[in-house]
Amino acid sequence: MSIFSTKRHKRNWAALSVVASIHLAALAAFVPWCFSWAGVALAIGGCYVFGTLGINLGFHRLLSHRSFKCSLWLEHALAVLGVCCLQKTPGQFVATHRAHHQHEDDTEDP
């Protein structure tokens, strides 16, 4: 579900408040005593670990498309990394993504 209002969905205030809070907290980087180069390195590393490994590899390629096989512990680890990105549960992500592929370029595309 999108955080923005459409004709068939209500605005998701919980998701909107989480996203807004994260972006407001990120503004703390402009306060001199809150900035550190270690924080910059962690942010870049976190984008790779959680975004690339958790969402792209884990939720999208592994769980949604089943485009490769791996051991169960690695599948669970990638799913946990994906959950850390606040993209709902693995099952909800997979269902929404598969519905997206069924209704691409339609008005029913989630």
Order of helices and strands: HHHH
What is the CA-atom radius of gyration, in angstroms? 17 Å
Mean pLDDT: 86
Structural category = mainly alpha
User: How many strand segments?
Assistant: 0
Number of helical runs? 4
Work out the helicity level.
55-70%
* Global morphology: flat
CA-CA gap between termini: 7 Å
Short description:
This protein is mainly α. 61% of the residues lie in helices and 0% in strands.
Structure description:
There is one protein chain. The chain is mostly helical and 110 residues long. 61% of the residues lie in helices and 0% in strands. It is built from four helices and no strands. The mean pLDDT is 86.
List the defining traits of the structure above.
single chain; 110 residues; 4 helices
Architecture blueprint of SSEs:
Blueprint: H1 13-26, H2 37-64, H3 72-83, H4 90-102
Helix pairs in contact: 2-3, 2-4
